[in-house]
Specification:
Layout (H helix, E strand, L loop, with lengths): L12 H10 L14 E12 L2 E12 L3 E5 L6 H7 L10 E9 L2 E2 L7 H7 E4 L10 H12 L5 H11 L3 H4 L12 H13 L5 E5 L7 H14 L4 E5 L3 H7 L2 E7 L5 E8 H6 L4 H7 L5
Parallel strand pairs: 3-8, 3-9, 6-7, 7-8
Antiparallel strand pairs: 1-2, 1-4, 4-5, 9-10
């Protein structure tokens, strides 16, 4: 797959509006997915106080696949990601319209246990953020807080092996997680998320602070983890989306600054024969 990211002049707002008028309706730009659905959005809009951050987003995320969210800065990718495990609830004034469902259950229904939501739908952040504790304590923290039973060392080893980190740290488990390299710290954070036995792993630009070698290791790890977990990743790196994602959602900012879904489909199709001209303009570097 070849992606042309040549730096070309911006067509300007008028051309984008014209392109929007030429495109088919949104439902024709959202491809069907194969297999079970894990997360489904229907008419999702998100607000921070009076500011509308997302506008009427609707698509489905398939089980045990990698779904990438791409688009220019400020188009709502991270907001959408954080809606999936209710991390935005921590922001004063945040609210949604529409629905966000996890395996058929409304995530925002009254009485939903938010702690359980975040256990089932884990998060790995942009910058590695290990706790200032030993490697063992980093991994064991989540299971202890969530009351997960089992042998602590078995959980630690299983999680570190799943994150392809065991061989690197097995002889220094009592050392601080902060002593690891950046790439190792990010894999430690992934292992920490895996320790609580999630169903879905959300990753918000997990490689943006890493060098190319560490980035490739994380990408290889994502492909391995997708055999057991559903993964949703926000990335500004289109080559990364093309390398690792099974499905891709392209988002843009509307004139009112709310993020909207432009197109969703399997990654190969979206990058080679997009249905919306704005998608083509973005992936070929004409704007963004």
């Amino acid at each position: 797959m070849v992606i042309d990211v040549t730096n070309r002049p911006d067509h300007g707002l008028a051309d984008r509006i014209a392109a929007h008028a030429e495109t088919p309706p949104l439902h024709e730009r959202i491809a069907d997915i194969a297999g079970p659905v894990v997360i489904e959005m229907d008419g999702l809009s998100a607000y921070y106080g009076g500011f509308r951050a997302l506008h009427d987003v609707s698509f489905r995320i398939p089980e045990r696949k990698i779904t990438a969210l791409i688009g220019p800065s400020g188009c709502g990718k991270s907001t959408l990601l954080r809606c999936m495990n209710r991390m935005n609830d921590l922001v004063h004034g945040f609210r949604i319209d529409g629905s966000m469902r996890y395996r058929g259950q409304d995530l925002y229904a009254k009485g939903v246990d938010v702690v359980e939501v975040r256990r089932r739908i884990g998060m790995v952040f942009q910058k590695p953020n290990p706790f200032p504790k030993s490697i063992i304590d980093n991994i064991a923290f989540g299971p202890r807080v969530n009351g997960i039973k089992g042998n602590t060392m078995e959980i630690v080893e299983r999680s570190l092996r799943a994150a392809a980190l065991w061989d690197d740290v097995k002889d220094k488990l009592h050392q601080s997680g902060l002593a690891l390299s950046g790439g190792q710290q990010q894999r430690l954070c992934i292992a920490r998320a895996l320790a609580v036995q999630p169903d879905v792993i959300l990753m918000d630009e997990p490689c943006s602070a890493l060098d190319p070698i560490a980035t490739l290791k994380i990408e290889d790890l994502m492909r391995e983890l997708a055999e057991q977990y559903t993964i949703v990743i926000v990335t500004h790196n289109m080559q990364q989306a093309a390398r690792v994602a099974d499905y891709t959602a392209f988002m843009m900012m509307r004139p009112d600054r709310a993020g909207e879904l432009v197109e969703f489909g399997d990654t190969d199709t979206l990058f080679t024969t997009p249905r919306d001209r704005r998608t083509e303009d973005y992936i070929t570097g004409r704007f963004g």
